[in-house]
Queue: 4 jobs
Job 1
Amino acid sequence: MTQATLPATDTVRIALDERSYDIAIGADMLASLAQRADVPAGTAALVVSNTVVQPLYGAALAAALRQRYPVVHSVVLPDGEEHKTWQTLNLIFDALLSHACDRKVVLYALGGGVIGDMTGFAAACYMRGVPFVQVPTTLLAQVDSSVGGKTAINHPLGKNMIGAFYQPRLVLCDLATLDTLPARELAAGLAEVIKYGPIADMQLFVWRHSKHFSSWSMLDEPHIYRDNYLQAAVTVLAHSKEQALELLQRNGAWNIEELMRIEPEVISLDEPRIVISHVDF
């Protein structure tokens, strides 16, 4: 996939009064980060990533950040949902404290949903709150977990039971990172995309309910082109990852933009009730 085939940068504004922020979607987002006016100011940056993503994109992000921050630190966490724990979270705090980072540090979450959740929660806690930026590298994180400020770690008695609502200052969705996404992870993201059909479009839900993704005839129906991610879903399940990526990267900015307009509305319904959600059914 060449850069020429990727969409130009698009921006979605999440309007939350003083907590408002932009979601930037497009190609070459990591390299162009230094030129963005909305990058949070600070005296240092800490890049939080994992053992899978850091070797792929860590150097590119760090190089861009060095143009904006005097010092750039990094911490690499183990990969996997099973590491979304206090012990792993403390590795972020260890890095911050060992480098004597103050309230002017900015955290960057480079990875999927686990990295985004833990980095956001660390940012909410460290010195009672420091800025952080989401740089999601999976489709699932780009369309779901990086938006809405839901940060947390797991507890042995429940998933995401310890956390906070804490909004990022910026979300950078670089569609080029999907090039290295395994087919299973791509399918997981597409499943989340499909979920937005019944949330925001009942007609799409009724149509989807009567179809099977193994059918190539879906590609000829008008409804499929109302959300090109569904077209990509068919390709993932019935053909090849390469063609799916081509569809995602050709149409991805428009589709992620549409999903980003839905996700904050869903989150806003949850946020005021989160404290009593365990008894409010």
Note: Residues 14 and 234 are 30 Å apart (CA to CA).
Job 2
Amino acid sequence: MAAGGDGPRGGVNREVQSSSAGGNKGTQGPGGRESKVRLNKYLADHGVCSRREADRLIAQGRVEVNGRTAATGCKVTEQDSIAVNGRQLQGKPKRAVLAFYKPVGVTCTEQDKHAEKIINDYVQYPVRVTYAGRLDKDSEGLLLLTNDGNLIEAVMRGAHKHEKEYTVKVNREIEPPFLEKMAAGVYLPQLKQTTRPCEIRQTGKYTVRIILTQGLNRQIRRMCKACGYEVKQLKRVRIMNIRLEKLTPGKYREVKGQELEQLYREAGLALCSQVTRQF
């Protein structure tokens, strides 16, 4: 069924008709009317994925509203029946945020038949969680895993300039021009983009500590290569206020208490106790 039509055969309308009054009550708008929100925001608010990923799922025809393929930009309420990949959103799980130490050799994906090792091989958590920002297969260190799509969106959006800290070992002795070039920003021809200035500090003959405020694909490896160096080891040790601390490869811990509250403050989000629905 086409996703963009307005008639009976064209998928749901942009203003989706609510299901029967016997369903779950949603948020009430002015005059007692139930307020509607865009479907991508609804999916993010309910812990499915980020808004950007929700847009992709909708465009691919993988989201249904009241049994009909959803249209990009449609609006829904809590009374509507929402399914993603044929699975109904349901339940009221608690919000979950995990700090996970991704080992070298693990691919940041949930399902990939070609990947030798994936995150789900290490994280068996009662609530479905997904990653907020990737690490490439050859890198290790901190990943945030969560069922909060709004947190994923906030952490991954480069415009927010959230700090991510790394320890890096390169293939030859570090010289001052390398540090100066990296700190000032490096033009990456593959991406046709110059990186933002970053903090970099030498910690050894072959090692540095780098703080980035953006997350371009394989950014540090590309930056080092452009400066004549090759990365031999790369570990992410911090995302915003969350630190790797004493985690060992393949292990995770729950982020909670003041640490969780600070994470949400830095992300510019209100901390609620629950994600209303989960698939």
Note: The mean pLDDT is 83.
Job 3
Amino acid sequence: MRNLFLLLLTFVSISPLGLLAQLPAIPMRLQAGKILGKSEYFVDYTYRHKTPAESKDFQEDIIRVELGKALVKSYSYRLWQADSALTHDANKYAQVKIPDEGLSPFCYYRDLTNGTTQVYYRTPLSGPTLKYTDTPTFSWTLTGEKKVISGYEAQRATCQFRGRSYEAWFTPSIPISAGPNFFGGLPGLILELHSMDGTHHFVLDALCQRSADIVEWKIRLVKSVSRAQFRDYYQRLHKHPIQTFEANGQRVYPQDAQGNFLTKAEALSWTIPFNPIELE
């Protein structure tokens, strides 16, 4: 795969960006919005994933879950750290520091009372944030296998979900049906989750009791879409990135590793490898 660089002309001034596997999420200034509920636990998972699926190396993130009895908020903790640094920078015109690639651009608010999840996805290069409502359902098969994870007795379960097979280890000791991202549907908190193809792994890193407000972030430029519309955009973004950026009013000029601009034909044939956790 050719290493490509981008010269970007957007509302954010950033230096040329190397693309190895995927487009990194751009930090944004966050404001506290309405209070949605109260957390009982804060849970951090190490999230290791391969992009593309055939890659030899894993990319790594930390997924934080603010866990309440009625509501769960899940997001990239490392991206939130970058957001916080930008939000509290007194210089409003400070250069945006691009975090490592591999950080999840998704944020999930899952209502455990009705099973709905509000999903927010940051489009690349300071584009709009897409919002859609999802109602994921899981048909888990419980097994008799057990092991201890960080002092909690955990039980193994398996399921098929949107094109992938999963193995989860959950603990009934924390009887909240949740986990990283939108995952849940088990009689207890998920402590580990693995896709059977070996490309997505969530492993418990830290768990502590913490009562705090679960706050909905106020985000500039939010566009509401259906899940089908989001999936169409997400696939076009990776299969036809130049055309997708131009449709968003973003001017993107790919360069090769020597700094030479690609021809129009080369730019239009450029694709971005991806390995979404949802295949369907």
Note: Confidence is low (pLDDT under 50) at residues 1-21.
Job 4
Amino acid sequence: MDEAAGHGIARWKRRHRLACGIRTALGSARLAGTALMGTVLPGTMLLVFAPSAFAIGPGPVAGPVNVTSGTVQVVADTVVTSTASNPGADVTGGTLDIDSNAGASPALIRFITASGNALQASGTGVINARSNFAVTTTSGHAVLANAGGTIFLNGGNLVGSGGGGGLIALGGRIDATSVAYSNNTTSASNGQGAIADSGGTINLLGNVALDTAGNQAVDLGAGTNSTINVTGPAIVTLRGTNAMGTYLHDGGQVNLPTGMAINHYGTGNVGVTVDNTTA
């Protein structure tokens, strides 16, 4: 082992609590926006959700979209925009159905946030995001499943430009198919790809792409009692320096298919790091 590699391993061990640090940083923001009514822009509908089904859109809607029970559907050609630390959607109970084929005609559905998470679920909440949806966040997480929350993604484009991550499961579950996440930030230790911790599970079921440019970023990371399963085609790309393709700590597991490649384009990158875990 050369000297650079030795320094690299020491650096990874200092950062072996990375996923836990993400969880702590989320403490104040992960359940932001708990009111049962969203702000209403001129010409948009009131976001009051009864236990029965309720439709949102089309057109501009001021977030957050908060769901506590029942079924709420976001229809085609809807743009949900949240400011400050407000999430785009916060589902603590019931189901949020994001369906670009619902409505007058199929069209893109967008969620845009500043420092809030774009899509987040917890408790008994479920988010079902179907084809042709897009998420853009400046510094929040694109998708966050807290304890008990379940998020199904099929056919979406996720874009981050700051310190948030792409698919983050902290005790919850995320299933992703035909989803692309990219984050071009070059800040240190930011812009993670997929992180599971605190009993979280992430299933990458096929045609998933994770592309990060952050220095010291992690594309596939699993911590305490958590698992990432890659069962279909996936493209994992790291463009920053000193980044890690796969990182396991404190019992976390990342299960990859035979022959899967992780693309490294930065200097000092490490393919696999294992800390306090049996791989």
Note: The chain has a mean pLDDT of 85.
